[in-house]
Amino acid sequence: MEILKRPLLTEKVAAMNEKGVYGFVVDVKANKIQIKKAVEQMYGVNVDSVRTMVVAGKRKVRFTKSGVAQGRKPKYKKAIVQLAAGEIIDFYSEA
């Protein structure tokens, strides 16, 4: 099971990055302890706290020639990670 799917790169999370807070899309079944270990292992930082939330999938409707096609996007889980003071994660580095 891959715990960290991808980092959240939104304006809101980018503003929190300056305070040592980072966001990730994680596996829906992952718990806070697994998320903390995965971030520490992947980026070599110390994590103070992890907050999680499950985002419900949006309803999608398309009007086609053959009628109305309805469905849902899948739900996903977000994790907001607070690092120890003075530590950073650089998503944009070339290395």
Short descriptors:
95 residues, elongated, single chain, alpha+beta, 2 helices, 4-stranded antiparallel sheet
User: How many helices?
Assistant: 2
- Please give the CATH class: Alpha Beta
What name does the CATH topology carry? Alpha-Beta Plaits
Order of strands, widest sheet = 1-2-6-3
The CATH architecture classification is: 2-Layer Sandwich
Can you characterise this structure?
This protein is α+β, with helices and mostly antiparallel strands. The chain has one domain (4-83): RRM (RNA recognition motif) domain (Alpha-Beta Plaits, 2-Layer Sandwich), CATH 3.30.70. 20% of the residues lie in helices and 41% in strands. It is built from 2 helices and 6 strands, in the order βαβαββββ. It has helices spanning 11-17, 32-43; strands at 4-7, 21-26, 47-55, 59-64, 67-72, 76-83. The strands form 2 sheets. Strands 1-2-6-3 form a 4-stranded antiparallel sheet. It is elongated and about 55 Å long.
